[in-house]
């Protein structure tokens, strides 16, 4: 009876540990893979949350792995530029944009583009992306809706 209980406990422990290992390898994408080729929606500039209503198109950002190019929308204009990234560091080159005149966007476009110039690092956790300055402060927080594989 003791052997049977010991076997059951050992087997249960192996299943639990095996499940943890399997889960890690399934979601074992590295930071760079999660960062790239995903549509990120601006949620916060510095400590200021961004609120959207049904009439506003959200500010976005995408990092293309193929060409090391970024693109998106700053709440008023389309933006584009180049970037270099590794597992932790992110250097964004000069960002260009279209020049539409936008009323009542609370100058999100200006603050967004200024914050992009400060980005030196990033942290990504599944559906959340934090863009950090050289001191590790969050300058932009973006989220990604669940996307099909």
From TrEMBL:
<dbReference type="InterPro" id="IPR053147">
    <property type="entry name" value="Hsp_HslJ-like"/>
</dbReference>
<keyword id="KW-0732">Signal</keyword>
<protein>
    <recommendedName>
        <fullName>DUF306 domain-containing protein</fullName>
    </recommendedName>
</protein>
<dbReference type="Pfam" id="PF03724">
    <property type="entry name" value="META"/>
</dbReference>
<dbReference type="InterPro" id="IPR005184">
    <property type="entry name" value="DUF306_Meta_HslJ"/>
</dbReference>
<feature type="domain" description="DUF306">
    <location>
        <begin position="35"/>
        <end position="142"/>
    </location>
</feature>
<dbReference type="InterPro" id="IPR038670">
    <property type="entry name" value="HslJ-like_sf"/>
</dbReference>
<feature type="signal peptide">
    <location>
        <begin position="1"/>
        <end position="19"/>
    </location>
</feature>
């Amino acid at each position: 009876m003791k052997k049977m209980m010991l076997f059951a406990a050992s087997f249960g422990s192996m299943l639990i540990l095996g499940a943890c290992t399997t889960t890690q390898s399934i979601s074992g994408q590295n930071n760079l893979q999660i960062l790239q080729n995903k549509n990120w929606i601006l949620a916060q500039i510095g400590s200021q949350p961004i609120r959207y209503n049904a009439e506003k198109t959200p500010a976005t950002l995408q990092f293309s792995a193929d060409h090391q190019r970024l693109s998106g929308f700053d709440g008023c204009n389309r933006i584009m530029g180049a970037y270099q990234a590794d597992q932790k560091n992110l250097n964004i080159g000069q960002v260009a944009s279209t020049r539409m005149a936008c009323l009542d966007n609370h100058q999100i476009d200006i603050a967004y583009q200024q914050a992009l110039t400060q980005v030196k690092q990033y942290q990504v956790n599944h559906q959340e992306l934090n863009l950090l300055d050289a001191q590790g402060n969050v300058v932009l927080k973006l989220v990604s809706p669940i996307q099909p594989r």
